[in-house]
Design goal:
Number of domains: 1
Largest sheet: none
Distance between the termini: 52 Å
Number of strands: 0
Strand content: under 5%
Structural class: mainly alpha
Length: 103
C-alpha cells in the first residue's frame, strides 16, 4: 500500500484555507447578484431577497464554490489548508442557518 505524503510547505496552514474559505462566499454572492436579472443595486437585491425569503438560499449557493477551493487544496496535498476551508465553510453555514431563522 502506497502512502500519500501531504505537503509540509509553509503555505499548508489552516489559515491559508480560512482566508479563501471566508472570502469566496461573499464573492460568489456578488456573482449571483450579477447573474440574477435585476435592476437593483446590491443593497436593494439583499432587501428583495429578505422580503422574498430567498436570502438563505442565495447564501447557501454562495458557499458551494468552497468545494472547489477545498478540492484544489486536497489535490495539491495541502491537507491543513483544506481543513481551514472546511472550518470556514462550517462557520459560514452556521451564519446562513442563523440568518434563515432570524430574518
Amino acid at each position: 500500500m502506497k502512502k500519500t505524503k501531504h505537503s509540509t510547505g509553509k503555505a499548508d496552514k489552516p489559515l491559508t484555507g480560512w482566508i479563501p474559505g471566508l472570502l469566496v462566499p461573499p464573492l460568489s454572492f456578488v456573482i449571483i447578484w450579477l447573474l440574477v436579472p435585476t435592476e437593483r443595486d446590491l443593497a436593494g437585491f439583499i432587501e428583495y431577497a429578505i422580503k422574498a425569503n430567498v436570502l438563505s438560499k442565495f447564501l447557501s449557493l454562495a458557499v458551494l464554490p468552497n468545494l472547489l477551493v477545498f478540492f484544489i487544496f486536497i489535490w495539491t496535498k495541502m491537507d491543513r489548508a483544506a481543513k481551514g476551508v472546511l472550518y470556514a465553510t462550517f462557520v459560514v453555514a452556521l451564519a446562513v442557518v442563523a440568518i434563515k431563522f432570524l430574518l
